[in-house]
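Hey team,

Filing this mostly as a record. A colleague (T.K.) asked me to run one chain through the structure pipeline before their review meeting, and I want the input and output archived in the tracker in case anyone asks later how it was produced. No errors, nothing strange. Just documentation.

Input sequence:
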Amino acid sequence: MTQAILAGGCFWCTEAVFRGLDGVSAVESGYIGGRGPNPTYKEVCSGQTGHAEAIAVTFDPAVISFADLLDVHFATHDPTQLNRQGGDVGTQYRTALFPLDDAQRAEGEAAIARWNEAHPGQKAVTTIEGPATWYPAEDYHQEYWQGEGQRNPYCLAVIPPKLAKLQKGFAEKLRG
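Output structure:
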């Protein structure tokens, strides 16, 4: 098992996407890429800490590759939006990759180039950052879509379209 750390807006929304992939054993919401230890949700949402809402995806590379995870990431959020995703605005909602080694960094660069080539006239503003310290989000943020999220109007507006993109573009990568 290995990990990938990805930021693409609200972690509730990105967590919901990656939980459905075959080969993914865990998805944890958290904070990364800012100043100060152990930030809280309130601190991160203020935009003052510089942390991004992100997810740590634990996966089996024999089942799903890091490149496939990156392709899902780019297909299910808008990598052209600087410091925002939909109505969420601020550096905490930036599109970013946090590679854990040189191989992930190179794969991240290749994924950005691949996305840019496939979308002429558009440019991904996704940054590659790190190394940085990972901080798990508070317990109530974990598995949010599976619980409270399905009653939250924001999540109901944002997550189903992401899941539809996942189903349309990556059906063969979904859990059976």
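Quick notes for T.K.: The first strand starts at residue 2 and ends at 8. Strands lie at 2-8, 24-32, 52-59, 84-85, 88-89, 95-97, 127-128, 135-136.
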